[in-house]
Amino acid sequence: MVNEPEFIKHVLQDNHPNYAKGPLYRRALQPLIGNGLPSSEGAFWLRQRRMMQPAFLKQHHEKFASTIVSRTEQTIAAWRKAAAAQSPIDVRKHMMNLSLGILLKTVFGREPAEEVDPVGRAFLAIQNEINLVSVFNPIQIPDFVPTPRRLRLNAAYRVIHPFIQRIVDDRRRGGANEEDLASLLVFARDDGSEGMDDVQLRDEIMTIIATGHDSVTEALTWALYLLACHPDVSNRLAAEGIAVTANEKPSAESLCRLPYTAMVIQETLRLYPPIWGLMRQATNPDVIGGHHIPAGAKVVTSPFSVHRLPHLWHAPEHFWPERFAPEHSVNRHRFAYFPFGAGPRQCLGGSFALLEMPIVLAMLVSAFEFELNDIGPVRPLPRVTLKPDRCILLTVRERRTGFAQSAMV
Q: What is the pTM assigned to this prediction?
């Protein structure tokens, strides 16, 4: 277990070629993402990374932001009804529907809801079958054995795989229009002008959807939970959001005018990073901080643990967004905070998440006040991402002024 920033830098950046994801990691996530970017290795991974990176450049953010805004407006409309009825909302369920809707629209473009909705349910079914701990079981049932889990996975694949293939074929016939992520990936090329084959396109599209919406779902759920517990922070965030969104819809450009919202998100990701642990396997022997690392050793680091170390963070268990203000961040070690991983294998979708989350949070908190129902302590549950261990119910009330009443709705 490596939890000092300098040692983390060594593993994830300085000597990263020596630390592969390893077979256990690939075995755990293969049912979800196949040979997608998070699980691929070596020259193949580098080629895929280079081809996919242009799809996530900031030049596409404004186009993606309009989808985020329109989907969040639908959530606001649903929450108005809940507020009028004084009916508590299941935060995680709503954030899951919102983030999945945003991602499916961003990836597939103008696909009809009657096709996209079953695909979303199939993705959730696959994610429910992923258990990272199970890969350490010394007895592994072969994939060809028709266990109940395998049958459920196959049923989901029968929905997802044909749908993605149909999208890929349609984009190839239509030409490079850059209207959605699927088009950008279909026409991505490496230096040799060779694109991805159908299987790899499918794996990368599944990776984007599965990892993208799950991380954002949990981060937004934790953020709304923390804001409900800290109304003073919620009110300050709302004031900032109202000032920015009073006469215009949020956009990628307006993020620079939401600095406190960004701090709240950073602090949420510090306390509850969706990517809570990173595992690598040493290819060759190494030495870290004077400790011998043999070839084949599993090396683990945990953003969740590092983000709470007292010698790195003042009052680490306390929710204090101001710790990310420039004056409090100037001397912070780069590898003391890494909610999306770090080094060359840092999550490619982190930039999209940091576009989506401020817009969603600014809109929701500008429109509503939140009151946490008495559900007892909520603890983090480490699965593929860091989830709450229970349902979080919030009672929402419309703010007197804010996004819900602004002129542009």
A: 0.92
Q: Could you give the C-alpha distances from 143 to 65, 258, 388, in angstroms and in order? A: 40, 48, 30
β-sheet bridge partners, residue 287? 292
> Which pLDDT tens digit goes with each residue over 270-282?
999 999 999 999 9
Q: Tell me the pLDDT band of 264, cut-offs 50, 70 and 90.
A: very high
Contact 261, 361 (CB under 8 A): yes
Q: What is the pLDDT of residue 210?
A: 84
What is d(CA 182, CA 199) in angstroms, rounded to the nearest whole number?
A: 14
Contact 373, 393 (CB under 8 A): yes
Tokens (6 digits) for 407 = 């002129």
Please give the backbone phi and psi of residue 85, each rounded to the nearest 5 degrees, phi first: -90, 0
At which residue do the structure tokens 């508590």 appear? 88
**Which runs of E-coded beta strand occur in 206-353?**
278-282, 286-288, 291-293, 298-301
Q: Please state, in angstroms and rounded to a whole number, the distance separating the CA atoms of residues 311 and 6.
A: 14
Task: Report the alpha-carbon distance of residue 148 to residue 77 in Å, rounded.
Answer: 39
b/e map 348-386, b = 16+ CB within 10 Å: bbbebbbbbbbbbbbbbbbbbbbebeeeeebebeebbbb
Compute the distance between CA of residue 184 and CA of residue 176 in angstroms, rounded to an integer.
7
Task: Provide the pLDDT for residue 408.
Answer: 36
